[in-house]
Amino acid sequence: MSESEIQIVKRDGKREDFSIEKIKSAIRKAFLSVGSFAFDENLTTILGRVHIDDGMSVEEIQNQVEIALMAEKYYAAAKSFMLYRQHHTEDREIRNKLEFLINYCDAQNPATGSKYDANANVEQKNIATLIGELPKQNFIRLNRRLLTDRLKEMYGQELSDKYIRLLKQHFIYKNDETSLANYCASITMYPWLLNGTMPIGGNSKAPTNLKSFCGGFINMVFMVSSMLSGACATPEFLMYMNYFIGLEYGNDYFKHAADVVDLSIKKRTLDKVICDYFEQIVYSINQPTGARNFQAVFWNIAYYDQPYFESLFGEFYFPDGSKPDWESLSWLQKRFMKWFNKERTKTVLTFPVETMALLTKDGDVIDKEWGDFTAEMYSEGHSFFTYMSDNADSLSSCCRLRNEIQDNGFSYTLGAGGVSTGSKSVLTINLNRCIQYAQMQRIPYMTYLEEIVDLVHKVQLGYNENLKMLYNKGMLPLFSAGYINIDRQYLTIGVNGLVESAEFLGIPINDNPAYTGFVQEVLGLIEHYNKKYKSKEVLFNCEMIPAENVGVKHAKWDREDGYFVPRDCYNSYFYVVEDQSLNVLDKFMLHGEKYIKHLTGGSALHMNLEEHLSKSQYRQLLRVAAKDGCNYFTFNIPNTICNDCGHIDKRYLKECPVCHSKNVDYLTRIIGYMKRISNFSAARQKEASIRYYAHKEGVPAC
Amino acid sequence: MLKYTDYDIVFSEIPDETTLAINLSNCPNHCPGCHSPQLMEDIGEPLTQESLSLIIDKYINGITCICFMGGDNDPKEVRHLAAFAKEKYQGIKTGWYSGKQELPSDFKTDSLDYIKLGPYIAALGALKAKTTNQRLYRLKKDGTHEDITYQFWKH
């Protein structure tokens, strides 16, 4: 092959005709820089050791030149050549960073500008968010190195290399690789109640009254969140607040909430005092946070019906020996929800993400009062999740993850056992690519998937070893102080592209035996491995990840590589989000027991509706969910926010009802929390616009 | 004979109910500006006790009401199928969206819980418009009825 027929691949992936002169020139420069000169015969012997093939990369050629210089014993020139390459590598990195910096500054919003981890949880881009973006690439490298070093030690080089290869070829995706911290946790606040924040590195003592509880709670949530990469759930928040209100105003305080209890000239009632504390906590926690690159903390809370409450906290004692009081807590939960729903018409409040936990029996909720109240809140336009179970054996720790509870018992140092749970790390399988690749290679896709599923479990065990190392070195005070129980945290296997892979196989995406069989087969395999790798210290679960940015990335990468990609963002649901042939009941069925039973880590049905239903209709849908075994869901009706006058309306409107401006934006829920659609990344906005909202309009004019 | 083109689960056609709405074709009314003009044609599959049961069986766990959208070409069959559904599915409510101003003189309403009457007149609007000529009635067991059209105007 003559020189002119050979092409090389540049660093940017472009091909270029190979030129021997460029190599000669680089070698001459290396000689000159060390005070010597490269004659033609030197060049001939050096180049005699270099073999150029068509399609070879610049890096490979330079590696060969380095080796050739060493082999010919031109050590000084070789060293100079290496240093020259290193210098250029560093230059390129800085150039890339500068380019990124400029692009980020010019991007439409922070989620579109972010290169590595598009997150809508940031309102506006500024110097603080930019500072957070810049080191992300370094974190990815560091995390990969930590993990591959561990994998080599545990399983050998081959598995470690395979992990990186699958990651780079997008068969799998490591979530939250830009952070060093473990993922999300639902914490027990008992250690805080006993010892304050000192054991986790703070300086405040245990709360003693309502005021110190509310102020201290905010600081505690900020501290905990700065040591997690994902959500911080405080499922006992209202129960503890109720306790402190009771300490000051008596357990029957709710019976005289209208009494004036404030002797200042404001003469506030007890109800107003309580709502002012809600305001202080919620507004503070929704502030951008310095320690989290100007993202707000991701805060979740839970509400319980009476049977759920009793099974979680039936054995619970506060440090003073008293027990939580259901009657007043029931009132406080309702008061908070009503207050929060109303407050959200004044301003965009993203957090807390709320989950209503309801216990069910025989196709309905057991606690009718709380079932009715849940329906009432949905009908009043409040946006929250409902988690249903026929057994208080699990809890949601995050906007989507559910976790089985290992132990509902109570401990005098750690409090309620059931609330301490969460996920250490999520590693996701791109099912669409894996299944299509297997078909192309003529391998049964289950055989190929099994290989991938086995590998991700091993990788997660490697991650777990690294986490233990950090723990043993005292780097994880949340664990050592008892806020999180490391043994009750899950290693999570995520799945993405499930619907798309079924579509590729020609399976119709509706409730039919072929689809049920496919879903159970694939998710059943993962569950099988979850059990196989379970041990005294590790637990696995499987979740359908919310595809906020991974779904977009997978669709893009798979399309670029020629795979079948039916949409720009892979679904986070068991149905095709834009499919208008499926009605509301079909969708509940597709998130019912048959489909989710192997999805031990959960997935929330986001039921998109154009308009709010009445209380009795929502109540009926709670029954539907209980009957179908759809355990986690929310209703999603876009709220309208006027860009001109700022009015927020719970309805989905084309025009502002106050100032009649048509310049309106919508708040919707994409991965668990409410955000303006214009804050989502460009690809996600597109998904939101084609998402099908089951219409309620159009009384036929027959 | 009645024919249907498709069905859906709807929430606003009958207030407070979760309704399986079945769209019937061959509509004789031909209202100008009709929302679903394709339903004027003789299209779709026959709606019989068997085909109706198949649809209801799929959704019986979730619905509270079945509503026939149209069917003015054969009101007796609407009543017949409504009676059949009530008999077979205990506790289910039934509704009928008719485009006529009045019920046929000999029509028995005993197997219906809701009846919508009135043609669509574009200038007056559909049920959501306060100016509408259409009316939705809730039929009570004692044979009386209540005009519940106002429930569409809550927002």
Q: Can you characterise this structure?
A:
The complex is a heterodimer of chains A (702) and B (155). Chain A is α/β, with parallel strands linked by helices. Chain A has 25 helices and 23 strands. Chain A is globular, with a radius of gyration of 29 Å. In chain A, helix 3 runs antiparallel to helix 4 and helix 10 packs parallel to helix 12. In chain A, strands 4, 5, 6, 7, 8, 9, 10, 15, 16, 17, 18 and 19 form a 12-stranded mixed sheet that branches. Chain A has a 4-stranded antiparallel sheet with strand order 21-20-22-23, with no helix packed on it. Chain A has a 3-stranded mixed sheet with strand order 2-1-3. The termini of chain A are far apart. Chain B is α/β, with parallel strands linked by helices. Chain B has a single domain, classed as TIM Barrel (Alpha-Beta Barrel). Chain B is 16% helix and 25% strand. Chain B is built from 2 helices and 8 strands. Chain B has helices at residues 49-59, 75-88, and strands at residues 3-10, 19-24, 45-46, 65-69, 93-97, 114-117, 135-139, 145-147. The model of chain B has no long low-confidence stretch (mean pLDDT 94). The interface between A and B is medium-sized, with 25 and 38 residues.
Largest interface, with counts of residues having CB < 8 Å to the other chain, equals: A-B, 25 and 38 residues
Quote the CATH topology of chain B.
Answer: TIM Barrel
* Helical content band of chain A: 40-55%
C-alpha geometry of chain B: globular
Features:
heterodimer; A: 702 residues; alpha/beta; four-stranded antiparallel β-sheet; globular; disordered C terminus; B: 155 residues; TIM Barrel; eight-stranded mixed β-sheet; 8 strands
Quick recap:
The complex is a heterodimer of chains A (702) and B (155). Chain A is of the alpha/beta class and 702 residues long.
List the helices and strands and how they pair.
The complex is a heterodimer of chains A (702) and B (155).
Chain A: E1 7-9, E2 15-17, H1 20-33, H2 40-48, E3 56-57, H3 58-71, H4 75-106, H5 110-113, H6 127-133, H7 136-155, H8 157-168, E4 172-174, E5 184-186, H9 190-195, H10 210-226, E6 232-233, H11 237-249, H12 270-285, E7 299-304, H13 306-313, H14 326-343, E8 353-361, E9 364-365, H15 368-379, E10 385-389, E11 394-396, E12 402-404, E13 410-411, E14 415-416, E15 421-430, H16 431-440, H17 445-472, H18 477-480, E16 489-496, H19 498-504, H20 513-532, E17 539-544, H21 550-560, H22 584-590, H23 593-596, E18 605-608, H24 615-628, E19 632-636, E20 639-642, E21 648-649, E22 664-669, E23 674-676, H25 682-690
Parallel strand pairs in A: 1-3, 5-6, 6-7, 7-8, 8-10, 15-16, 16-17, 18-19
Antiparallel strand pairs in A: 1-2, 4-15, 5-15, 8-9, 10-19, 11-12, 13-14, 20-21, 20-22, 22-23
Helix pairs in contact in A: 1-4, 3-4, 7-8, 7-17, 10-12, 11-14, 15-24, 16-17, 16-19, 17-20
Chain B: E1 3-10, E2 19-24, E3 45-46, H1 49-59, E4 65-69, H2 75-88, E5 93-97, E6 114-117, E7 135-139, E8 145-147
Parallel strand pairs in B: 2-4, 4-5, 5-6
Antiparallel strand pairs in B: 1-2, 1-3, 6-7, 7-8
